[in-house]
């Protein structure tokens, strides 16, 4: 069944986004690549979150390959949009810079959920 690797991919990519945002929000503003590399060395815990995010992306890709092997692309790709919902909820819950709840955004999130359900529902056989 392809839904399990697809959901794993969604969860991992969502974790990756949140971990990288957490790490990058804690680093000082870097002017160039040299500054960024120095910041990585000077802030190992934050660099660890950044690396965890990158690892999440890599693992997500492996799960995604399995999902693509087992699911029609239209269904697999629709499931990917669930990541938007998870990341939005995490950003609000964790209080990332300026992230606030709004009913307008909630309406958009609910429309994504309805869209995923419509795409992934079994269709009637003819």
TrEMBL record:
Topology term for the membrane: Multi-pass membrane protein
Membrane-traversing stretches: 47-67, 76-96, 102-121
Gene Ontology CC: plasma membrane
GO biological process terms held by the UniProt record: lipid A biosynthetic process; lipopolysaccharide biosynthetic process
GO molecular function, one term: carbohydrate derivative transmembrane transporter activity
InterPro entries found in the cross-reference section: EamA_dom (IPR000620), EmrE-like (IPR037185), Flippase_ArnF (IPR022832), Small_drug/metabolite_transptr (IPR000390)
Keywords of the record: Cell inner membrane, Cell membrane, Lipid A biosynthesis, Lipid biosynthesis, Lipid metabolism, Lipopolysaccharide biosynthesis, Membrane, Transmembrane, Transmembrane helix, Transport
Pfam family, one: EamA
Residue ranges of every copy of the EamA domain listed in the record: 50-119
Pathway: Bacterial outer membrane biogenesis; lipopolysaccharide biosynthesis
Gene3D superfamilies on file: 1.10.3730.20
Compartments in which it is found: Cell inner membrane; Cell membrane
Tree of life domain: Bacteria
Assembly, per entry: Heterodimer of ArnE and ArnF.
Assigned protein family: Belongs to the ArnF family.
Biological function: Translocates 4-amino-4-deoxy-L-arabinose-phosphoundecaprenol (alpha-L-Ara4N-phosphoundecaprenol) from the cytoplasmic to the periplasmic side of the inner membrane.
Annotated protein name in UniProt: Probable 4-amino-4-deoxy-L-arabinose-phosphoundecaprenol flippase subunit ArnF
Source species of the chain: Tatumella citrea (Pantoea citrea)
Gene: arnF
